[in-house]
Amino acid sequence: MVRLALACAVALALTACGKQESTPAPETSTPATTDAGMPSRPAPVTPTAEGKFDAAIKAEDFAARLERLASDQFEGRKPGTIGERATTAYIKDQFERIGLKPGNKGSWFQTVPMIQTTLVDAAATTLEVSGAKGKETFAFATDMVVGTLDASAEVDLVDSPIVFVGYGVDAPDWNDYADVDVKGKTVIVLVNDPGWGNQDPDLFKGRTLTYYGRWTYKYEEAARKGAAAAFIVHETPGAGYPFGVVESGWSGPRQSLPPSEEPGPRLTTAGWLTEDAARRLFAAAGADFDALKKSADLRGFKPTVLDAKLGTRYRSTIENSSSENVIGYLPGSTRPDEAIVYTAHWDHLGRNDALEGEDHIYNGAIDNATGVAGIIEIAEAFAAQQPPPQRSIVFNAVTLEESGLLGAAYYVAHPSFPLDKTVANINLDALPVGGPTRNITVIGLGQSELDDYIEEAAAAQGRVISGDEEPEKGFFFRSDHVNFARAGVPALYAAGGLDLVDGGESAGRKAADDYTTNRYHKPGDNYDPNWDYRGVVQDLEALYAVGRRLADETTFPQWKPGADFARPKQP
Question: How many whole angstroms separate alpha carbon 138 and alpha carbon 475?
Fold first, then answer.
């Protein structure tokens, strides 16, 4: 996803320091160093020539794979395109060359069925609201986005009553839908969890976003309540990304799993509103958006039926298609039926020839060519390891993360190894390439015993672990590992943190904000030969060390008391 790419944006401006060795990884070519006597920023890395890769985790090898995966040849790695075929073939060839075995019942590929929905003439699509105080028209991309979630080819929503349901949450001791019937109606919901607006530390988990705050949950709950439509009011702090990210994600084809893979109701109409659009909508109904928004953060909140109705009409093309997870594995030497699963999503946003300027390809270098290059590097280290790992190690380059974590969800529903034999998931997504850091950020710190494993690996490098500094943005729910977590498998999502060896936390924060604003889900996320790869090598060695320790143990890591998840009880 995004926040672990903490230092990439200012990599060219930084003079960073070297790395410490981690153990027990294969020997690497980079010497151990300390803050006190580090060399200045190294010369740009020359990517390894194809076919000349080393067994050790090396910056040159990583850079070669990253450059290839983020090249224009792969056309932004969009599922269902020629870019997918090039990408999955490359990953399969790398797995095979390393010496992995096909990881899905004798195949390198796991076919993930999908429905692709594309809004026809998005620019002409509008929402019309007629209220007690007037009428308003909302334009696609400028004011809102809209689309169907149940694969309806034609939608004609006429005079749908509008209900404000706060955060749209129905949880123990909190029900935003209390005493209101929203069947066939349009609900307006706020982003994030109850208590977010007034920063109430006693509601839900305070600043830490829970699954109830995820946009996916809000649509699911609205559908369960029978709503005809649901619109989430976007705000950048609460969502964790600007409205432009929402707009780009809803403007082109959107993917979902077939209903057979995701049982339960789906909304016919769903979308997002800007805050300005929400204020205009509420004003047309004679209501004060800001006052009602404040009320949603208070215990005893009651939903409000607005004196307004909404209408929209649009068409979508619906295509049944599929995409591929690419899976390879190393059989364990003594307990081959037990597995550690490394994941990284290979997909990105493809190309858009309607974009202004010369760059029309979303190359996704950071998000997530870094993760795929990373699991290939780790796979090569495991393949060369002596003695070999005792448990099996699975490397799963999953698809459709950008479409809602669909590839990982499908794998968890159809795993190569039973989930009760899956020891842990280690997920790589958006690795930092701005140089060494003094800390490793663990997204979801405090959830599972895997914290102890990464803490040990970090300490061997002279680093410490830290939690996510922006837990309100819910990064734990925004990458593939959450599917394993929801199924009860402890999951680790970690990489270099904000505290850069050169520049400290202020430089790290500046880099993170710049990346989110200027590169995340934009054509500007391109490979740069001048990145400083010493930090990412540290991270890969640490994640390899965690997997190696897990592979040679007989116990299974557990969730910690008070965690959001738990391993299912065995019969």
Answer: 30
CA 222/CA 83 separation, integer angstroms: 35
Here the tokens at position 29 are 């070519």
- The token duo for 526 is 């391109």
The residue among 210 and 325 whose pLDDT is bigger is 325
Tokens in use for 140?
Answer: 């696609």
Can you tell me the distance from the alpha carbon of 57 to that of 61, in angstroms, rounded to the nearest whole number?
Answer: 7
Cα separation values, 130 from 78, 280, 556, Å: 39, 11, 58
Query: Shortest CA distance to 355 belongs to which of 274, 251, 272?
Result: 251
DSSP 371-405: HHHHHHHHHHHHHH-SSPPSEEEEEEEES-STTTS
pTM for the predicted model, two decimal places: 0.83
**Minimal CA–CA distance to 449: which of 345, 556, 528, 569?**
556
**Regarding the domain delimited by 117-318, which CATH topology (the fold level of the hierarchy) does it fall under?**
Glucose Oxidase; domain 1 (3.50.30)
Q: 518 in helix, strand or coil? A: helix
Chain segment 42-63, per-residue pLDDT in tens: 778 899 988 789 999 999 999 9
Asked whether the beta carbons of 71 and 86 are under 8 A apart, the reply is no
Interstrand relation of 154-164 and 186-190 (parallel, antiparallel or unpaired)? parallel
Mean pLDDT of 489-518: 90
Mean pLDDT (whole number) for 78-92: 96
Which tokens belong to 519?
């590169």
Residue 280: in which H helix or E strand, if any?
Answer: helix 275-284
Of the candidates 122, 134, 201, 204, the residue with the CA atom closest to the CA atom of residue 169: 204
CATH of region 8-29+39-113+323-551: 3.40.630.10
**Model confidence over 347-384: pLDDT tens digits?**
999 998 888 888 999 999 999 999 999 999 999 999 99
∠ at Cα 205 (192, 442), nearest 5°?
90
Cα–Cα distance between 532 and 530 in angstroms, integer? 6
Largest CA distance in the chain: 75
What the block records as the tokens of 78 is 């969009």
Query: CA end-to-end span of the chain, whole Å?
Result: 36
Q: Extract the tokens encoding 76.
A: 């932004």
Q: Which of 303, 400, 348, 472 is nearest to 70 (CA)?
A: 348
**Distance (Å) of CA 505 to CA 162, 189, 366:** 45, 35, 20
Residue with tokens 């209501």, as numbered in its chain = 287
Which stretch of 67-81, 247-261, 263-277 has the lowest confidence by average pLDDT?
Answer: 247-261
Domain locations along the chain: 8-29+39-113+323-551, 117-318
Distance of alpha carbon 55 from the chain centroid: 29
CB 381 within 8 A of CB 57: yes
